[in-house]
C-alpha cells in the first residue's frame, strides 16, 4: 500500500524531471548567443545530455525492475497472509504453516507497546524483521526458501518477559 503509493508518486516525478531537462537541453541549442563559440558549447551540452539519457535510462529501467517489492513476489502467485500481533508477552499469529517458494505477507502490529518482529531460520539466523507498533500495520513480505521450523522472536525490549515472546512457523514443500 505504502510502497505502491511511493511508486505512483516517484515515476511521474522522474518522468517530469526528464521532460524538464529535455526541454532545457533542446532550448540550449536554439537560444544560445549568436557567437559561434557559445553555439558550439550549447551543441556539446545537448549532445552530452542525450548521451547521458541513453546511458542512464536503461540503467534506471533495469534497477527499478529489481525493486524488492511487488514485482519479485508476484512470481510465486498471490501471497499468503499471516496476521502477527505482538502482546506482552506473546505473539498471536493467524497461521503457522507456510509453503516454500510462495510469498508470505506478514501483517504486523501490536496491541500494547512496541515489539520487534524478528523471523529466524532453522539455524537461528535472522532473515527478516519489522517493527510491531500499536495502531499501525507493517507488511513484511517473505519467501521461505527451505522447509523447516522457523522462529519469531521479539527484537524490541518490551518489558519483563520480552525474551519469552517466541512463536514457531513451519515451512513445508508444496504438495
Ligand atoms: Cu515484545 Cu520484546
Note the quaternary state here: single chain
Q: What is the total tally of β strands?
A: 9
The CATH H-level homologous superfamily of the largest domain: Cupredoxins -  blue copper proteins
Which fold name fills CATH's third level, the topology of the largest domain? Answer: Immunoglobulin-like
Count of separate DSSP helical elements = 3
Which cofactor or ligand species appear? dinuclear copper ion
Distance, first to last CA: 31 Å
Averaged pLDDT: 84
Radius of gyration: 25 Å
- The run of helices and strands is HHHEEEEEEEEE
**Low-pLDDT ranges:** none
CATH class of the largest domain: Mainly Beta
The portion of residues assigned to helices is 25-40%
Shape descriptor: elongated
Assign the CATH architecture of the largest domain.
Sandwich
Count of spatially separate domains: 2
Strand residues, percent: 25-35%
Description:
With 175 residues, this protein is α+β, with helices and mostly antiparallel strands. It has 2 domains: 2-64; 71-172, Cupredoxins -  blue copper proteins (Immunoglobulin-like, Sandwich), CATH 2.60.40.420. It contains 3 helices and 9 strands, in the order H-H-H-E-E-E-E-E-E-E-E-E. Helix 1 (2-31) runs antiparallel to helix 2. It starts with a helix and ends with a strand. Bound molecules: dinuclear copper ion. Dinuclear copper ion (CUA) is lined by residues 86, 89, 115, 154, 156-158, 162, 165.
Amino acid at each position: 500500500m505504502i510502497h505502491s503509493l511511493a511508486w505512483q508518486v516517484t515515476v511521474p516525478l522522474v518522468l517530469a524531471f526528464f521532460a524538464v531537462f529535455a526541454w532545457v537541453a533542446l532550448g540550449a541549442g536554439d537560444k544560445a548567443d549568436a557567437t559561434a563559440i557559445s553555439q558550439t558549447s550549447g551543441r556539446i551540452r545537448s549532445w552530452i545530455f542525450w548521451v547521458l539519457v541513453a546511458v542512464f535510462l536503461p540503467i534506471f529501467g533495469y534497477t527499478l525492475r529489481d525493486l524488492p517489492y511487488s514485482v519479485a513476489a508476484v512470481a510465486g502467485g498471490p501471497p499468503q497472509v499471516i496476521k502477527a500481533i505482538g502482546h506482552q508477552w506473546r505473539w498471536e499469529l493467524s497461521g503457522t504453516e507456510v509453503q516454500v517458494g510462495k510469498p508470505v505477507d506478514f501483517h504486523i502490529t501490536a496491541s500494547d507497546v512496541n515489539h520487534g518482529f524478528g523471523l529466524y531460520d532453522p539455524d537461528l539466523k535472522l532473515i527478516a524483521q519489522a517493527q510491531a507498533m500499536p495502531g499501525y500495520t507493517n507488511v513484511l513480505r517473505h519467501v521461505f526458501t527451505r522447509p523447516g521450523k522457523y522462529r519469531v522472536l521479539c527484537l524490541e525490549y518490551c518489558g519483563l518477559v520480552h525474551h519469552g515472546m517466541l512463536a514457531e512457523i513451519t515451512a513445508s514443500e508444496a504438495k
